[in-house]
Amino acid sequence: MSRSSLSFALVAAASTALAGLLTACGTPPADLDLSLQHPSVQRRFVVAMEPPAQGPAVGQMHAWRLKLATAEGQPVSQARISIAGGMPQHGHGLPTQPRVTKEPILGTYVIEGMKFSMTGWWDLRLDIDAAGARDQAVFNLVMTDAGLQR
């Protein structure tokens, strides 16, 4: 094999390996739970996330609604909720610091400052402190160029 043929073969092999890594990094696991309502980790609460009716779109700020209820379905008011998250496959967090800004309806909270900077798998982790109980809820979201995968 000539020197130029060997170089070409090495470049082609490296390109194929890189393309495979990029595809694997950007493909969410097939078995992700994409539900937007489920019990909290310790089943103390039922948490429902409601994205904006239009979108959300990648790269834009948006507000979501969060409905919080007891395991029996009663609305939970005056909860303290912190929000974190990121892209598990990329190892970085959210580009913003979303936060609960108001509770316009008993047990329904508005989260402002949500933004997804790129397509792919994101997770949202909520720490909930309400009525003397603490728990967490985790949501998996897949953003596409067309918006939130549902």
UniProtKB/TrEMBL annotation:
<keyword id="KW-0732">Signal</keyword>
<dbReference type="Pfam" id="PF13115">
    <property type="entry name" value="YtkA"/>
</dbReference>
<dbReference type="InterPro" id="IPR032693">
    <property type="entry name" value="YtkA-like_dom"/>
</dbReference>
<feature type="domain" description="YtkA-like">
    <location>
        <begin position="56"/>
        <end position="126"/>
    </location>
</feature>
<feature type="signal peptide">
    <location>
        <begin position="1"/>
        <end position="19"/>
    </location>
</feature>
<protein>
    <submittedName>
        <fullName>FixH family protein</fullName>
    </submittedName>
</protein>
